[in-house]
Amino acid sequence: MNALTPFAGALPLAAEAASRPPLGGAAIRFEAVSKRFPASRAATEVTALDDVTLDVAPGSITGIIGRSGAGKSTLLRTINGLDRPSGGKVLVDGTDVGLLDSAGLRALRREIGMIFQHFALLSSRTVFDNIALPLELAGTPRAEIASRVDELIDLVGLADKRGRYPAELSGGQKQRVGIARALATRPRVLLSDEATSALDPETTRSILALLKRINAVTGVTVVLITHEMHVIKEICDRVAVIEAGRIIETGDVYEVFARPRAETTRSFVASVTGAALPEAFAARLTPHRQGARQTVLRIVFTGDNATAPVISRLSRSLDVDVTVIAGQVDAIGGRPFGNLTVAVPARQDVVEAVVALVTSHGLQAEVLGHVA
User: Which CATH number is associated with domain 13-269?
Assistant: First the structure.
């Protein structure tokens, strides 16, 4: 396979990608996957995964998001065979991981790189030697190892840290070493296990930008797990939401942000899109209109309508007083997206007129509740 282009910043991304053919990513499919663990102090088993069916397209960046204990780590580990399904199949480019013997698993794992939350670097080895480790284990000739590691050190921007030890590196630099090591055997799949959750926001952004660049240049399939929706927003093409071992929602990231169906998804999306109500206001919200003075609505702006002057139109066309409670306009995957939470008089005819006007302009409107 072709070597990776160094991460030197000398070439624009498009030119950099064109300068060498992509390595290509693998397709991954979960077919009715379940995973049960025997309980240590109880008679019943613990179900970590329950009838999971999911497709990951080759070359995509797919995020799996869920709260702690939802099953996302177990799902990730079934891809490289660290956890074997109790039922169903995990297919990597059509190969059933559950049917592989030890030799088959070793071969598969050379095609799958993994980035860990807490770096998992060997303290007694330098940056160079940590990156070289998978190649040494694979029996790669020393000269080839040196060439490959030098390419990877440049790729992740650590050319001046080649001989440093992990204790001499920042958290972001350690994670860059971890990424380079995961890429050492030229994998077709890259797994990220909460790779940015131990990093500060600025470092997180730089690591996500690096992963996105690697995906664009090499075509490697990236599957990442996280409990942070901003990570999904920054980097992913598609997202799967997992809860209690089941996939409750999947789709294109933009569409899921714009039209979340499950309550858990709504909660995740609200945390990064400005859709979350201020706590003091949320505490006053009730589903009952009777006795309320105001009705609270969420208006979602997407695509060309993301900057529509909806407030002025409401005031001018309906002569309605509109109170802005919260809002945000952002971009997801380069496409504009906005949320605006407003309060209007609680009269039913007013609310219906507001919703009709909003939807007539191609926007979405949702009644969240009422306040006295």
Answer: 3.40.50.300
User: What is the C-alpha radius of gyration for the chain, rounded to an integer number of angstroms?
Assistant: 24
Distance CA 332, CA 335 (A): 5
pLDDT at 143: 92
| Nearest by Cα to 284 from 344, 368, 367, 372 | 372
Collapse the DSSP code of 130 into the 3-class scheme (helix H, G, I; strand E, B; otherwise coil) and give the result: helix
Alpha carbon distance 55, 64 (integer Å):
12
Taking the CB of residue 325, how many other CB atoms lie within 10 A of it?
Answer: 18
pTM, whole model, 2 decimals? 0.84
Contacts of 93 (CB under 8 A, 6+ apart): 26, 27, 58, 188
Q: What is the pLDDT, as a whole number, of residue 41?
A: 63
> How crowded is residue 38: how many other Cβ atoms within 10 Å of its Cβ?
9
Res 15: pLDDT? 36
Overall residue count recorded for the chain in this entry: 372
Q: What topology does CATH give the domain 274-371?
A: Alpha-Beta Plaits (3.30.70)
Instruction: Give the residue extent of every domain in the chain.
Output: 13-269, 274-371
The whole-angstrom separation of Cα 37 and Cα 47 is 6
Q: How far is CA 159 from CA 121, 176, 182, 232, 234, in A?
A: 18, 11, 17, 29, 26
Report d(CA 153, CA 126) in Å as an integer.
12
Close Cβ partners of 170 (under 8 Å, ≥ 6 residues apart)? 203
Tokens at residue 52, please? Answer: 């999971």
- The residues of the chain scoring below 70 in pLDDT are 1-23, 40-43, 306-307
Q: What is the dihedral of CA 302, 304, 305, 309, to 10 degrees?
A: 140
Q: Is the dihedral of CA 36, 37, 38, 39 positive or negative?
A: negative
